Amino acid sequence: QVQLVESGGGLVQAGGSLRLSCAASGRTSSTYSMGWFRQSPGKERELVAVIRSGGSTNYAESVKGRFTISRDNAKNTVYLQMNSLKPEDTAVYYCNTAGVYWGQGTQVTVSS
């Protein structure tokens, strides 16, 4: 089992920045990919960004150039730096690893 705990969400004005963190514990592995997803009311959960064990990354088109995913394998932690935030980025952000394990989510609200 792997446990994931997200932090760093909050309320920010449009154009602002937030940094999300996700700490993994339990049967973690640096070989697992780690990713961030988000879900808004009435919408399906969508992939925001993923980082693989080798460091390669992929981003949703809507966040390219604004968000950066990174990981610290020594700390079993993945980060999501979010800049130039927009109201449409408002959602609950979830951390995922190995495509199986999920965190409890952290709310991000961007006011216009």
Description:
This protein is mainly β and about 110 residues long. The strands form two sheets. Strands 2, 4, 5, 6, 9, 10 and 11 form a seven-stranded mixed sheet that branches. A four-stranded antiparallel sheet has the order 1-3-8-7, with no helix packed on it. It has no helices and eleven strands. The mean pLDDT is about 95. The chain is globular, with a radius of gyration of 13 Å. The relative contact order is 0.33. A hairpin with a 4-residue loop joins strand 7 (about 65-70) and strand 8.
Which helices and strands appear, and what pairs or packs with what?
Layout: E1 2-7, E2 10-13, E3 18-26, E4 34-39, E5 46-51, E6 57-59, E7 67-72, E8 77-82, E9 91-97, E10 101-102, E11 106-111
Report Rg: 13 Å
Instruction: Please trace the helix and strand order, writing H or E for each element.
Output: EEEEEEEEEEE
- Coarse shape: globular
Q: Number of helix segments?
A: 0
From the N-terminal CA to the C-terminal CA, the straight-line distance is 40 Å
Largest beta sheet, briefly?
7 strands, mixed
> pLDDT below 50 for ≥5 consecutive residues: which ranges?
none
Classify the beta-strand content into a percent band: over 45%
